[in-house]
Amino acid sequence: MRLRDDDYAALDARLAAHDAFLSARYPGERAGRQPVHTVYIPADRIAGFREWGSRALAVLAEHPPLPFPAALEERVRAKLTNEPIEDLRVDFEDGYGVRDDDQEDAAVKQAAAALLDGPRPPFVGIRVKSLEAPTRRRALRTLDLWLSLYPEPFVVTLPKVSGPDQVAAMVTLCQRLEDAYGLGAGALRFEIQIELPAAVLGADGTATVARLISAADGRCTGLHYGTYDYSAAAGVAAAYQSMDHPVADHAKAVIQAAAAGTGVRLSDGSTNILPVGSDVAVHDGWALHYRLVRRSLERGFYQGWDLHPAQLPTRFAATYAFFADGVDAAALRLRRYLERQSGGILDEPATARALAGYLLRGLDCGALDTVGFTREQLTALT
C-alpha cells in the first residue's frame, strides 16, 4: 500500500464540487406515485370531467367485443368506475384557444369552482399559454388568478418551451407568486412541454432539454412530449404525424437521456385518432391506442396523454397487461438477485432498482395487488 491518508483527502477535496453537483443534479427517481396518464380538457368544458368514467363504460357497452383480454375486464371496469382520471389538466392553451380577457377570466373562475365542488382526481394541474411574447401576459394573468381561487396542490404545464431563458423566467415568476400568496419556497412547480425541435437540439448544437432541466432549479417535475406540434415543426406531413414516427422516437430518446437520474418524470404524447363512430372505427381506434400505449411503456415512458373518454379503456388495459405480463419474471429475478442466485441472468444493482421500480409502478396504478415483496422492501431498493 503506497497511498497515504492525505492522498485520499486530496482526491476528496479535488472532487468535492463534482460530488455536490452529482447529488443536486442527479438525485435519482422521485418518490411517490406517477400517474399513468394526463387527461387534457379545455377549461370551458372542465365541468364534465366527472362523467368520463361513465362515458368510457358506455362506449364499452355500445361497441363489443371488449378491446382487452377477458382476464382484465373486472380490473379495467373497476378502474373506470372508481378512478377513471388519474391526472387532470385544465387546458387554457391550444385546446381552449384565444379568447378575450373577460372570457378567460370567467373560465378560470368556473374551472376552479368545478374542481373544488366535489371529488377530483389525485393529481390536478393547469396548462397556461406559452411565455412567447404574444401570449405571455395572458399566461401570467391566468396563473395569478388561478392561485387566488384554488387552494389545493396543483402543477403548471408550460407549453412550447424553446429555450432555458423561458424556464429561468418561469422560476422567477414562481418565486414572485410564492411571496405574493404566502406560499412556501418551492411550492410552485411546473412541467415542461417539449413541442419544438429547438427544445431538443439548440442552435448551438447542444441538447437543449438538458439545459431546460438545469434552468428549472429543481422546480421541473416532468417533461411532456407534444406529438403534433413537434412533428409539424419538424416538417412531418400531417398524415404521418404520430407517437411512433422516427422524429418522435429521436426526440424522446434525447429527452429520456437528459432526464435520467434527475427525478424529472417523462410523459409521452397522445394520438388524435379517436375511437369514435362506427364499430369498425371504434375498434380500429382502440387497437391503435392499445398498441401505442404498450409501445411507450416498453420504451420507459410510463405516462401519456388521453384526449377522449373512449381512450380510457385501452389506456388502463394496455398498462395493466404490461405489468401483468411481466410481474412473475420480475419478482423471480429480484428474488434471485437478493438471494445471490443467477438463474441464468446475472443482474446488477441498477437492474435490481429497475425491477423494484417496475413492481412498485404496477402496485401504484392498480395493475397488481401483490408481488411477493412489501412496498417498504421495494422502496428500499429503488
Automatic annotation (TrEMBL):
Alphabetical keyword list: Lyase, Magnesium, Metal-binding
Cofactor(s) the record lists: Mg(2+)
Annotated transmembrane regions: none
GO MF entry, a single one: lyase activity
GO biological process, one term: oxaloacetate metabolic process
One Pfam family per UniProt: DUF6986
Signal peptide: none
UniProt name for this protein: Citrate lyase beta subunit
Record organism: Couchioplanes caeruleus
